[in-house]
User: Fold these one by one.
Assistant:
Number 1:
Amino acid sequence: MYGELLDSESEQSVEEVVAFLKAITDEIESGEEVAIEFDGKSVTVPAPAGMVELEVEVEREREGDDHDEIEIEIELEWLVDTVEPNTESVEDSDDLDEESDSEQLELEDSESEESEEEVESNEPEEDSEQDLEIK
């Protein structure tokens, strides 16, 4: 139903990386939302309210005769409540033109299809796992 929300990579100065990581930790600590802005893209997810699974991987690989590459991957995972799509319809109004009515019908049809797909899915509806991977 969801999937990868943000995946980007760019070279940054040490100061920029430190500021980025501090911003994420501040967002997590706030307990509200985690807003991540990176490489001109952004995503906001609910902050963890309970336990967080932390995975750390450190690698060192030969990159040439005179240097190695160090890679540190930090992955955080937590569960959040599943947000149900808003299926409320717009109240009928004489002010709505035919185009707006048509757009509302298309919206309701697409929400209905999404609802049917969710019923067919075997995924739990109460919680969803939130992945946050930093490379």
Note: The helical segments are 14-30, 98-120.
Number 2:
Amino acid sequence: MPQRPSRPCRHRGCKAIHRNANGYCDQHQEQAQQAKRGSAGQFSAWYTTTKWRILRKRQLTAEPLCAYCAKAGRVTAATVCDHITPHRGDPEMFWAGPFQSLCQTCHSSDKQREESRR
């Protein structure tokens, strides 16, 4: 099996050459994984609370169809209660919304692409 091509580390200022899949040299690999886990870890537990499940169910009952699909003229059942404005870990924004109903496909592709531009 061929080896990955050597490339520079993605860590700012690091000039180390590596073959790791995540783009970081051995020295910065663990640091990058911790940063990734830490950013989601602060609020990811909120999605497992009873309060969130009730809020999600209320949203999907009020708006059972995907908002993005509806704009495109498609009828698709929504399965995700999405924050229209990214909460970025702010508890007040997380619980207050505003929310929209999306299908998993739109939430995982169109919405994520939209948020990465902000």
Note: Residues 4 and 24 are 13 Å apart (CA to CA).
Number 3:
Amino acid sequence: MFPIVGARLRRSAGTRLGHVITAVHTLVYAEDPDAARAFFRDVLRWPHVDAGHDWLIFRTGPSELGVHPGGNAHEISLMCDDLEQTMAELAGRGATFTQEVREERWGRTTRIAVPGAGDLLLYQPAHPEAWRMP
């Protein structure tokens, strides 16, 4: 058993993490994506949305993040409801962005620097969001 550090855990308003990040979007790269999707859908029975063309996005439930020693190998996307508002709020807290805002087919994106660990994608999705499912 691992001890919980801190007096108690507190949630921000609703399900929002730190008031502006709405969810963590994790990517799984697979040599056989259909088989991987079938595993998450049929074996684990994770709820999902279809973003089009059988591109399933799974609700993973609450998440957590651990920081481990090692190289800068990660692919984590942070999601928000309003990219400009989120960037402004985070910049006010000292965040820096390593990419101009881009319009992608799947959403509006930028990249946010993580000191000592490269950067993460920050985006306002245009695709269905599985984490919002009941």
Note: The chain has two helices and seven strands.
Number 4:
Amino acid sequence: MSTLDDAINEAVGAGEIIKVDFSGLKDRTEFGPLPEGDYVCRVVHAESGTSAAGNPKAVFRFEVAEGDHKGRVLFRHIALVGSSLNMLRGLLSALGLKDEAEAGEFNTANTIGKMCVLHVKVDANDPRYNDVRYAKPYKAPNPLT
């Protein structure tokens, strides 16, 4: 061992061994974009921010809640100016927050856990990513039918 290794071990300790069984996992070397389609999603995070152009924006992180891609994450950044406001109003309405959408004001905490259906395409400008095109209300299946 080098003097540097000895110094690091002395400063932080030798650590501990953690045993993990990865044998049941599928190989996932890379997450590509989701295929184009509709995905039932849940809002897991929402916050305000500023776009690269200096405009205020809302940022939403969604988790796919059903199907083969359950657990995958999608993002939607919506500038709070111009025609982008149509996307925000549509998203809030799809999340069941129509009153907030009509009032022009919403609390990000009220979006957490809400579900909707997102229509997703592969981003035309960068095919490594998805582009959330629009949101529709989620209708939970009726277990009695």
Note: The mean pLDDT is 88.
